[in-house]
């Protein structure tokens, strides 16, 4: 591994990640250029490469930091006792996180590489893998609920999981387009009411 040199005196890695996160979160991976990053971080190209390797490596580190800082609700949902509880935790907390007053609206995991260049395919694949893991988590819980007779056998686990994921991802886009937190939570409440109706049918 090449030795990283050229980091500016007083370089604050945490602050640099935070500023890069705002850029990627607000604009997406491909739209953010190296010049955007160096301007926001206050470093030269060589210092950026010395600190993070390259843009893709920086983005990967940003995504990990974003998940650690803002994605805890996914782990909380995964620990929920039922699919219904997991869906409610996921969607309601996502609506909060997607509309933070001091951060770009939307979700980096959902919106970070929506329309990507061919060269950015690995970035898009990684983000899709993260989203797919959430869908799989809801599906597994729904399957377990049916086996435990906590959910109606007529409720298809895959359809439930995709419905939750569609709302999670759709709300992220709506937040980027200016939808309010109240708008998103209203959509979540309606979805949970329909979930309850399906369980009772």
Topology:
Layout: H1 13-27, H2 34-41, H3 45-52, H4 55-70, H5 72-78, H6 83-97, H7 108-111, H8 121-147, H9 157-176, H10 181-200
Helix pairs in contact: 1-2, 1-4, 5-6, 6-8, 6-9, 6-10, 8-9, 9-10
Question: What do these coordinates show?
Answer:
This protein is mostly helical and 201 residues long. It is built from 10 helices and no strands. The longest helix is centred in the middle third of the chain and has 27 residues, at 121-147. The termini are far apart. 35% of the residues are buried.
Principal-axes shape call = elongated
Give the SSE order as H and E letters: HHHHHHHHHH
Gyration radius from CA atoms, angstroms:
19 Å
SS element count, helices: 10
Mean pLDDT: 90
Number of strands: 0
From the N-terminal CA to the C-terminal CA, the straight-line distance is: 59 Å
- Poorly predicted segments: 1-6
Structural class: mainly alpha
Helix content: 55-70%
Please describe the structure with a list of short key phrases separated by commas or semicolons.
elongated; single chain; 0% strand; mainly alpha; 201 residues; 10 helices
Short description:
Helices cover 70% and strands 0% of the residues. It has 201 residues and is mainly alpha-helical. The longest helix is centred in the middle third of the chain and has 27 residues, at 121-147.
């Amino acid at each position: 591994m090449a030795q990283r040199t050229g980091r500016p005196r007083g370089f604050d890695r945490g602050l640099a990640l935070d500023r890069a996160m705002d850029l990627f979160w607000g604009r997406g991976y491909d739209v953010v250029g190296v010049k955007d990053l160096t301007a926001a971080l206050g470093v030269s190209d060589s210092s950026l490469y010395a600190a993070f390797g390259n843009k893709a490596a920086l983005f990967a580190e940003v995504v990990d930091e974003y998940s650690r800082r803002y994605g805890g609700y996914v782990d909380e949902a995964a620990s929920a006792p039922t699919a219904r509880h997991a869906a409610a935790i996921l969607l309601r907390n996502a609506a909060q996180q997607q509309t933070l007053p001091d951060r770009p609206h939307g979700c980096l995991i959902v919106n970070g590489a929506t329309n990507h260049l061919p060269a950015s395919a690995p970035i898009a694949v990684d983000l899709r893998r993260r989203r797919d893991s959430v869908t799989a988590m809801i599906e597994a819980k729904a399957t377990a609920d049916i086996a435990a007779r906590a959910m109606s056998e007529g409720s298809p686990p895959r359809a439930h999981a995709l419905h939750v994921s569609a709302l999670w991802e759709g709300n992220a886009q709506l937040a980027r387009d200016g939808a309010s937190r109240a708008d998103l939570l209203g959509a979540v409440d309606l979805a949970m009411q329909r979930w309850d109706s399906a369980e009772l049918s």
